[in-house]
Amino acid sequence: MQLETENLQEIVDLSEEEMLENISTFVDASGLAFGVFRVILSDDGKEVLDSKYKYVNQKYCDWAHKPKEFFATQTFRSFFGENLSKKWFTQAYEAAILQKTISDKLYDPVCNSYCNYIISPVKKYFGYFVYAFFDVDSQAKEIIALEKKNKTATLLLNISKALSGPASHESAIQYTLECLAPVFMAERLFLYEIHENKIDSEVEVCKIGVESNKGLLVGKHHDQNIHEWNSIPVNKYGYFEIDVDSLKDKFGISPYDLKKLDIKTCFGMPLKDNSGKVIAYLGADNYQLNDEYDLNDLFPTLSYYLTSKFIIHNSIVYLHNLSHLDSLTGIYNRIGYLENAAHYMKTHDDEPSVGIVLDIDDFKFVNDLYGHNVGDKTLQQLANNIAKFFNKKACYGRTGGDEFCVLLQNTTIEESKPLIEQFSNMDQSFFYNGKRYSFTISMGYAQYPEDGKTLQSLNSAADSALYDAKLKGKNNCVRYTKNSNDNLRSRLGFAFKDIANNLPTAILIYSCQRPGKILYANDYIISLFECDDLEDFLKFSSGEMANLIYEEDREFILSQIEQQVGYDPMSKIGRIVFRAMTKKGKIIRVLKIGRRVTSPYYGDLFYSALSEYYEDTH
Q1: Model confidence over 59-82: pLDDT tens digits?
Q2: Which part of the chain is the GGDEF domain (predicted)?
Q3: pTM (global) more than 0.70
Q4: Selected catalytic residue, list 359, 402, 451, 468
Q5: What domains, with CATH codes, occur in the chain?
Q6: Among 97, 184, 492, 515, which is least packed, fewest CB within 10 Å?
Q7: 297 in Cβ contact with 149 (< 8 Å)
Q8: 350 in active site
């Protein structure tokens, strides 16, 4: 857009005439400070980028403490710096281009006081305007200061109500940023939270036409990504303001990433808990603080409100997690799973879903053989496998001991069967202290609403299918059917210890590797070898099968057992008679019937039944 050729003297005369006409109702114009400006427009002519000084009177020079010659090469930006209110450029456009007259007031940093001003068009010359100002009297200053405080107090009251009200945490933070938008007048205003040193969530408000950067840092480590910003000191009001170009020289921070995003100025307010740890961050990009607010009152109070909100919210989240998450695996516990799965089924009652109940095969043996540390690692590994495999397709939790439940959402049993079978067959192993450990799982599954119309009945059906899988050899998955035996649990209710100790024979399980470490013995074997109790028996035998065989026969009998049974798991059951000496020195003949098996936990084992052998039993 082209501006008209100037006749400077005529412009000055017209400007003064225009100015006097507009401000005569406000103040005596004699000795008034004023200047004439020509706007510098953007390429499309829709906004004022700057204004060039064309004339200033002596009063203006006295106010600025500069000679007239100084202003011949100046623009408004070069004289006042970059911290000009965007409002001023909007008003310059309205006066010079739209031919409007504007009256307003602002804080004058040169005089450290408030001023009233008039911006008037030079009607004959398009693109020119006159700017005149005068000091506000003391009473007016008090009124303006009071207006700022009231405006700030109203803003803080609205924010306080939102942060302490019934709205969700994210909604309250979003509303707070929307309230703060007029204060910052920023291209982007944002606030992110930090949990366990990770940027957990982010809320932002962007100026129309500005691309969102939301989520750019979410999930990343705070210390690894923006820890350098913690080196920037804040002022006594708890925030800092930085020109991006000065980051490298002042703080050693590379401005490269910010410049890529076309960020020129930054505002930052770290929010810290009572220990001094940063728990959230309020920031603004390419902003201009609005002097219509009392910023010295606003920011300390705002920091207190937001910090209190986050501390309370984090405490609520912690207590909720404490009651809903399993502390060992990090996934839902029984309460958390039942609550979330039931909520899903209630809000999606018209959608099919599949319930799965699974557990670790022979988990007690894992704890007994390898210790509870490995047992805990086994549970953690299974939980991780469930979380990674099913991801967002399901709700899942550890519902007790080694039992886990999964609810596959919006799927039928036919659609999910391949997925369940794939998980059932996948490798379940992990390394701990340099050693690899493997385990297997059994799974039962059922469909909503056909097999159960509530979460409880669906889990019950899947549980019946699980025990069907146990009876079919474990390490598999079984679908619930109407023929599934609801009494399977009672059939498995006989504890192995009760069964073993009431059999009319001694049971001995020991390692195939010599000297045959004893892993299990029932009560009958204690009486067979005339011991007081299991501890006494293990002390007598030193916990080894070889020591039960009469010493003179030991090598021969062990070789015979190995040759007879062999190393084929499908070999026939071996039968042998050997001499043994009891704890009391009695020599007896023992009939041993055994078979070699391979256990995923113990390796190669002999399962054996022992009884005293008499010749007349032939």
Answers
A1: 888 888 889 899 989 998 888 876
A2: 351-482
A3: no
A4: 402
A5: 8-136 (3.30.450.20), 146-320 (3.30.450.40), 334-491 (3.30.70.270), 496-617 (3.30.450.20)
A6: 492
A7: yes
A8: no
